[in-house]
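Researcher: Let's do a round of design. I'm pasting the structure tokens now; please hold your answer until I've finished.
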């Protein structure tokens, strides 16, 4: 007759191991929960904007979200050039955003198209944007953010706005009519002439002139680059 089998006895240390593994799993799971979305970089987007676009929310488990899809959603925004998302222990999701640089505003039926140097429409604004020159003389066929200004002259005109860099704050308007004419915030016309190989050098020289005129509080009648390639400044 077979002897009755003894019931297996779970030793105390096994209970300790099982409890420790469960506690570790719970602790690890609690660390992989989105507690806060932190937006980094020089951007106007807020954490609320990021969550609205990506669907990320506090309380999400890390394995429930796709950081790749979130990045794609952010980079689909016209104003976003690049986005990176990085998880940090403690529940912070770090979102680093690099925005495209706006270089000009184009008037369009009572509003303004804010564009980058490629002619990409970043946003539609009801007001002019400080330190961005107005661009006039271009043909427009789209006013939708994410689309491009299709006028062939746009690349040249917006390149000038881009090259002005910080000195764009001295310029109120860049006009195109086959030649380039700028107007300073004081109304001084600057005749840059036709876009040719010397355009970059003329804009570089103009930047220095704008700074100098502002520092000396001078308001000439005009600045002319058209004839000699060198600036002729019409002083009273």
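Researcher: That's everything. Go ahead.
Model: Designed sequence:
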């Amino acid at each position: 007759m077979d002897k009755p089998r003894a019931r297996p006895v779970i030793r105390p240390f096994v209970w300790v191991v099982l409890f420790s593994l469960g506690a570790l799993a719970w602790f690890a799971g609690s660390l992989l929960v989105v507690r806060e979305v932190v937006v980094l970089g020089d951007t106007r987007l807020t954490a609320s904007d990021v969550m609205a676009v990506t669907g990320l929310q506090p309380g999400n488990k890390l394995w429930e979200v796709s950081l790749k899809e979130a990045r794609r959603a952010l980079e689909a925004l016209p104003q976003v050039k690049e986005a990176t998302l990085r998880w940090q222990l403690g529940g912070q999701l770090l979102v680093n955003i690099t925005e495209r640089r706006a270089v000009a505003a184009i008037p369009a039926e009572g509003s303004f198209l804010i564009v980058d140097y490629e002619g990409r429409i970043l946003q539609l604004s009801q007001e002019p944007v400080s330190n961005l020159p107005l661009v006039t003389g271009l043909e427009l066929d789209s006013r939708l953010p994410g689309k491009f200004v299709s006028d062939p002259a746009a690349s040249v005109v917006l390149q000038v706005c881009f090259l002005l860099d910080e000195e764009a704050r001295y310029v109120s308007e860049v006009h195109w009519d086959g030649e380039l004419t700028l107007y300073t915030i004081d109304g001084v016309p600057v005749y840059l002439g036709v876009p040719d190989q010397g355009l970059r050098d003329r804009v570089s020289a103009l930047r220095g002139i704008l700074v100098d005129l502002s520092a000396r509080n001078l308001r000439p009648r005009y600045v002319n680059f058209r004839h000699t390639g060198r600036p002729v400044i019409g002083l009273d």
